[in-house]
Amino acid sequence: MKRIYGASMVALLAGGVMPVSAQEPPVQTAASAGPDAAPAAAPGEIVVTAQKRSERLQEVPLAVSVVNGAALAAQGKPSIEGAVNLVPSLNFLKSGTTLNQSIFLRGVGTATFSIAGEPSVSTIVDGVVYSRAGEAFGDLVDIDRMEVLRGPQGTLFGKNASAGVINIVSTQPTRDFGGYVESSYYSGNEFRERAVVNVPLSTTLLTRLTGFYGSYDGNIRNETVGHKVNGYKHYGGRAQVTWEPSDAAKFAFIADYHHNNDDCCAEIIGTGPLTSVGAPGSSAAFQVLPTPKGDKSRRIDQDLVTRTKETGYGFSLQGDFTLGTQTVTSITAYRNWKNTEIRDGDWLPQAYIGFNQLHDFGPETSHTFSQEIRLTSPEHQFLSYVVGAYYSNAYSERRFTRNDQVCTAVGGVTPATLTPCSSPLANPSTFPTGTADFGSRFKNLAFFGQGTLNLSSRFRFIGGARYTSDQLDVFAIRETPLSGPGINPNFDQGVYDATAAGLANPGSYSNGVPWRGKATSTNWSGKAALQYDVTRGTTAYVSYTRGYKGPAFNVFYNLTYTGTNAISPETSNSYEAGLKNTLFGGKLVINVDAFYAKYHNFQANNPDLVAGVVTTRFTNAGTVSTRGAETDVIWRPVRDLSFTGGIAYTDAHVDRFKVAPGAAPTAVIPSGTALTYAPKWKGSLSADYRWRTGGAIDVFLGVQGNYQTKQLSQFSPDPVVRALTTIHAYGLVNLSAGIGDTQDRYRLTFQVRNLTDESFAAAIQSGGPGGSYRYQIPRDADRYWGVTGRVNF
What we know:
- By secondary structure, this protein is mainly beta.
- The protein is 5% helix and 52% strand.
- It has six helices and 42 strands.
- The strands form eight sheets. The protein has a 22-stranded antiparallel barrel. Strands 3-9-10-7-8 form a five-stranded mixed sheet. A three-stranded antiparallel sheet has the order 4-5-6, with no helix packed on it.
- The longest helix is centred in the first third of the chain and has 13 residues, at 2-14.
C-alpha cells in the first residue's frame, strides 16, 4: 500500500510542482487579505530581493523558491521547519534543542555541536544575518515571504551561505490602519494566538506591532514523570517603525523579542540492543524501557525531562537614502540570544548497576553586532550594480555541566536483572561531574560587488566578487572534581602543553588556564553568469559560483588534545543552468534548473567515542559533491484557483573522505556514500480554491501534499549504522476547508494534517543503551486536526 501511495505521489509531482507564491507589495492571500484587499498579483509578477534589490522573480538568474506568509502559517509549525514541506530542496535536522538543529539545501548543510562552527545555509531576517542557525528556528509570525536561494550565495550574502540562503521578509507597516486577531486550537491541546495592529501615526511615520503566544502538551508520553513531553510554550512580539521624512530618505527600525520554554525534544529508544548481544547485562536496560517500535514509538521512561529554555531579542535600523540616481542603504543590527539545554543522556528512569545516570545542563549566551552598507544603482541601465561592505562580530559562550551517577555490584558480579543503584546489591554510588567553559568570537569583514552588464535588450552578463577576511578566536577549559565513566578529566592550557610535549600523565599538569586557539583566513569568492531572454516570457541563464565558508574549531564539552586543530575553510565550485518561463499573461510560471557543485574541505560532524560516550567530531571530511535538477511551478488559471509546487532530484555524496586527526585509519566513509538529509527525490504540491457563492459567505478549500524518498540521518563509516539510521520514504497529505465573508473580514478554517497518519522519524542516531538507536519523532508524524478563527480589521 505504501509503495502504491509513493508511486502515486511521484506521478502527481512529475506533472510539475513548486514554491508557493509571494509578491511585493505585501501578499494578499486567502488567509491574509484585509477588507480592502486587491486581487493577488499574477505569479509572473512576484517580486523578491534575492540580489539585494527589488526584482521580479523571473528576472533573477538563480534558483529561488518563494513561500508566502499565509502558506507558512498554515503549516503544523510556522517556522523554517514548516517550510521543509513546501520547498523540495530544503531539508532539516531536528535535534534535542534548537541550538543543534541545522538546515540543508541541495543535500549540503553543517551539523555540529561545536560552538565555533557556522551554518552552511545563511538565515537573514529583514536584512539582518543570524550568526547561528538556531536563532532562526523560532515562530515566524506576520511574515510576508520567505525566499529560499539555492546553491552558494557568497558574493552578496557572505561566508555562511556556502549552500544557500533563507531570506525572510516580515510584513511592513503601511499607511492604512488595520490588523488582525487570530486564534487556533489543534488536537493534542495545542493553542496559538496571533495579533497584529498597523497604526499610521502620520503620513510619514508608520508603525506595526505583532504579538504571539503558543503552547502544546507534546506528542510523547514520559512514563516516569506521568505526562506528555516534546511540547512548548512560546511568546513574543515585534515592533516596527518606518519614517519617511522626505522622498530621498527612509528609516526602518525593528525590535523583536521571544521567549521559548520547550520540553523538547526527548530522544526515544526506537530499537532493542544491537551491540554486545549476549554479553552480561547487555539488554538489561530494556527491562524498564518501553517496548521499542521504531518510528512508531511514542513513549519514554526518563527521570530528567529533556528541554530547552531560550530567550532572544534584537534591534535593527535600516536607512535608505537617495543620492542622485543611486541609493545608499545602511543596516545596523544587534542580536542577543540565550539558550539553555537540559538533557537526559542515559534515557533511563534512574541509575542502575552497569547503566550510569548521565544528565547535562548547558546554558549558552551569544550576542552579535553587524553593520552593512551598500550602494545600489538604478535597474535596467547599461551597467547596474550593487557594491558594499559588511562587518560582523559574533561572540558565544557556553558553560556545560555533565553530572553522572555510577554504582557497581557488591562482589563485582553484575546481576542479570536490572538493579537500581539504591539496591543493597549495589555498592554506594559515586557522582562524577565535570564542568566546561568554552566560547568563540567570529570577526568578519567583507567587501562585495555585483553588476549586470546589459549588452542588449535581451542579453546580459552578471559578474560579482567578494573579499572576505575572517578571524576566529576560541577558548576552552574543563574542570573535573571527580572523573568517572562518561566524564572526561581536566582539560586546559597546561594539559594541552603537556600532551603536545609528550609528557606522561598530562592531566597532572592542569593549571586552570583556558586553552586558546586562533584561526585567520582571507578569501576571494565570486559569480559569473550569462542571461538571455529567449522570448518575451522565457529567460535562460548559466552561472558559475565560487563559494566559501570560514575556518572553524571543534570546541565543545568533550574537547581533548586531538580535537584542538583548526578546521580549514570550506570552498565550493558550483555550476547552474536554468530556464524561467512565464506563460499565459503571467498566469503560469514554470522554472527549471540543473546544478552541480563540488565542496572541498567539507566541514562535517562525524561520530566519535570519547570517555565511553558516543559523541561527534567536527572535522574537514574531504571532498563531496551534489548534482541534480529542480522544477518550480506556480499556476493561477483563474482568479480564485491556484496550484503551486516543486520537485527536486538530488544526488549528494562523498567523493573522497578525509579521516579526522587522531581517528582510526579505518574510519573512512566510502566514496559514493550519500550525504545526510539528502533524499534523492522530494516534491510538494498545493492547490487552493475560493468558491464565491454569490451570498454573504465564501468557501475556501485547500490540499497540500509532499513526498520524499529515503534519506540518511547519520554520517558514519559503518554500513550497519548507516542502514539503521536511514529514514524511510514517506508522504504527507494535509487538507483545509474554511468559510469567510466576501470582504475578507472574518475567516474560520478547519484543517487535518497528515491525513493518512503516516509515521516517520525526523532523525535517527546511534549510541543508545546496549547499542540501540535514538529517534526524534516530530509532531507531523501523527494525524491531527485544528481550527483557526481570524478577524481582520
